[in-house]
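Worked example 3 (structure in, sequence out).
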């Protein structure tokens, strides 16, 4: 049972890490009114990003589905309790879909510019809000949890949020906002790298390189501050035998030591990200996108695993510590986890398909000349 609980947290964390990498689409959307200088350049950028936007949304939905199936108590507590926060996130993706779907439609009532602002808002708000939501893994939230309530016919609610803001209160906590800003500037950095990787446009590439220096520097500084704060932060540990939860100073730092491969994973991710940024600024920007992207996946995966591995409480209740969520008290049954694990063996097939589609859409760089004809403009 313990193996499958850790196995499924690994899969959920991997999906989360891939989602953070795919936020380069959102980061690129925040550049729509600063990077292109002409309408044709903006069309080129929108259509380059439009070829990939579905992957981000699909990964977000898959992440939610995997969390629901493997850790239903976390799903009901977070998604059901902090619903205003999650509704805001989902709404930002709804207007993104509308932006790509209707921007280029003949006779749309709102005009192209309105839908471009939809894309800008999605890029801005979804990245920050997702960062805030993930920060609650480390910072906790105001909820109560009582499994015995499932037998109460009058009130069969296991977990309840104790504030009227239902997740929006997380927006005023500095630690949460810090991670939101880290994700925002990371997404912009990846978006700029994607422009340099995918577009055959000298002017856009040069502007992207100039903006990359600023955004990458802000990301690196904020990330370092976040990691230091996290490592100095008090975490919470659970005794897997008794279920008793207690505080432990520098818990997340000691997790990296107690589980050395987590620290190695984080270090490898950081080195890969920095190497990619250096290559983009001074050498080959096309390869830099993949070095940085791979590093992001490794680093985020390490941090998400650190949030729950080594008997760590991954969703702390700030109202009642002993009702906090751990891998042991929030997972599905052993039968469900084992059955789903068999299905998960097909994941490599899905990954192979995504890789094939990506390569088919990205094997050649996009040029401005391709979109001079109206029929070539999809978005």
């Amino acid at each position: 049972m313990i193996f499958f609980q850790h196995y499924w947290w690994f899969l959920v964390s991997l999906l989360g890490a891939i989602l953070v990498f795919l936020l380069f689409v959102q980061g690129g959307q925040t550049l729509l009114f600063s990077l292109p200088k002409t309408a044709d350049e903006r069309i080129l950028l929108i259509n380059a990003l439009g070829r990939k936007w579905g992957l981000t949304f699909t990964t977000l939905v898959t992440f939610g589905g995997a969390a629901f199936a493997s850790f239903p108590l976390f799903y009901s507590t977070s998604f059901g309790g902090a619903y205003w926060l999650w509704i805001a996130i989902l709404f930002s993706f709804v207007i993104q879909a509308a932006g790509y779907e209707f921007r280029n439609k003949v006779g749309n009532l709102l005009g192209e510019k309105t839908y471009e602002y939809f894309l800008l808002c999605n890029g801005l708000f979804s990245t920050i809000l997702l960062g805030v939501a993930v920060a609650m893994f480390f910072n906790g939230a105001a909820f109560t949890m009582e499994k015995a309530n499932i037998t109460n016919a009058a009130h069969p609610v296991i977990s309840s949020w104790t504030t009227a803001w239902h997740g929006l209160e997380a927006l005023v906590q500095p630690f949460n906002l810090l991670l939101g800003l880290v994700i925002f500037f990371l997404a912009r950095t990846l978006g700029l790298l994607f422009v340099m990787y995918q577009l055959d446009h000298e002017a856009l590439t040069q502007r992207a390189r100039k903006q990359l220096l600023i955004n990458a520097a802000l990301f690196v500084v904020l990330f370092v501050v976040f990691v230091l704060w996290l490592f100095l932060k008090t975490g919470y540990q659970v005794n897997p035998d008794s279920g008793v939860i207690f505080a432990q100073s520098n818990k997340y730092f000691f997790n990296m030591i107690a589980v050395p491969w987590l620290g190695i994973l984080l270090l490898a991710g950081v080195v890969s990200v920095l190497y990619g940024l250096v290559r983009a600024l001074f050498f080959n920007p096309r390869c830099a996108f993949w070095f940085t992207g791979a590093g992001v996946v490794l680093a985020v995966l390490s941090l998400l695993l650190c949030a729950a591995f080594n008997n760590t409480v991954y969703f702390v209740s700030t109202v009642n510590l002993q009702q906090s969520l751990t891998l042991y008290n929030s997972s599905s049954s052993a039968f469900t986890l084992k059955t789903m694990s068999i299905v998960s063996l097909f994941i490599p097939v899905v990954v192979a398909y995504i890789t094939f589609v990506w390569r088919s859409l990205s094997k050649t760089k996009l040029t401005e000349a391709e979109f001079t004809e109206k029929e070539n403009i999809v978005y």
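Notes: Strands lie at 143-145, 159-161, 235-238, 245-248. Residues 204 and 329 are 51 Å apart (CA to CA).
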